[in-house]
Amino acid sequence: MAWGTPSRERRVLKAGHSSIAVTLPKPWAEAMNLRPGDLIVFDQNDDGTLYLKPAPLPGGEAPGVPFLVQARSFETPGVLERLIVGAYRVGHDAIEIRTDVPLAPERIEELNQTVRSLLGVSVVAQEPTRLVLQNFIDPSKYGLPQLVQRVRMILVAFLEEMEEVLQRGTRSRRLSTLEEESGKVLALLVRQLFLASRDWSLARRIGSPDPRQLLEWRVVVHALEELSDVFGATLRTLNEDAARISETGATLSAYLPELKAQMKAVVDSLIHPSLDRACDVYHQGVRLGNSEAHGKSSTARPSASVRTATLLLEQSAGCLSLLAEIAIDRAVAGGTENILVEAA
Q1: What CATH architecture does domain 67-135 belong to?
Q2: Could you report the per-residue pLDDT of 225-243, keeping only the tens digit for each?
Q3: What pTM does this model have?
Q4: I want to staple 228 with a disulfide (CB 3.0 to 4.6 A). Which of 182, 210, 278, 293 is the partner?
């Protein structure tokens, strides 16, 4: 059982004259901080299964009440954007912004750009000193494995764009699109994790039946965020010197396919835990970290942009190594395989 209890079976007990009852697993009750007398909310599915969760505490935020952001004015660029993104990532559906002084045109444009960068968010009310944003995404429709796979596709696209720049010597036109798409999916991933941490029936529906896995997923998402930042910075660096990149980037060009293959393999091992596969991915990660990405074997001295890009990609190899370690942890936690590991 996901909670580590000795048995999945619970005997139905008689409670009172005509009622029956089932006890709750102690680890779950302790994790939910439940005490005698607390209320439980049940949701029944069409197939007859039940999901249950603690009832909201008295005085808690009522459904539909917007998260209020209020200030005299928003003069510093970026503050309004970060507040909106933060409210979205932690799970607020409605966000209301109020000011004493009407928002300047620059802040209105900043707000509109922020809304466009978040999946499912729209401006539903706009006045000179008041705006309301609303999220229309159903969280149960976006599984964690599917979103992680989507991020993998975007990260692979980053690497493919780097290959094109190095091979053709022309700037990538997809940089801003890839960065925007990556930011949208990663923000939604963080939002899903926050929502799942408060509603464990949702956690099960989106692919994390054991709530202890949510912390593990957060580490995965953090590593993917770092990979996205590194890949974006690498592609931007290569773009700046695309016209002058020639044979000096040959070694880096040979390194990118290996990095791309490892990117795919690592995510697959995370989504489909297997001890044998995870160990193989970890081994490949160690080999990749020791490979010649820095160009020492090249006869031509790499340009400054290629050297910078190489250093950035070495950081990405470290992120992939972290993900490979988590893949082993996930496989070991399953406890369903025995493998023979060769001694060094």
Answers
A1: 2-Layer Sandwich (3.30)
A2: 999 999 999 999 999 888 7
A3: 0.79
A4: 182
